[in-house]
Fold this sequence. Notes:
single chain; 107 residues; mainly alpha; 5 helices; 0% strand
Amino acid sequence: MKREHGYLLLAIVGTVLPYWYFIPFLQTHGLDVKEFVNQLFANKISGFFAMDVIVSSVVLWYFILIEGKKLGIKRLWVYVIASLTVGVSLGLPLFLYTRERKKSRGV
């Protein structure tokens, strides 16, 4: 399997698994942001993971901007939106997939 296909597979898994938990929340609470934040920071352990993901997202955005501009990848906002709508679990492998494709074309 090519590396880029591995990243694409990870992007799919990185979308399915988080939404496996998020869709039942939406079915129960809808887009209740207050309830979402309450549950996200319900205890110290969930807060730990929430802050880890938030910081990882910011680091990912920085990486996307630096690496994306260096390689001339267009529409960098797509990867930021992917990380905001699903998470780092989609944004990172999706960007790495695009990066591998760009590099394999001789950039």
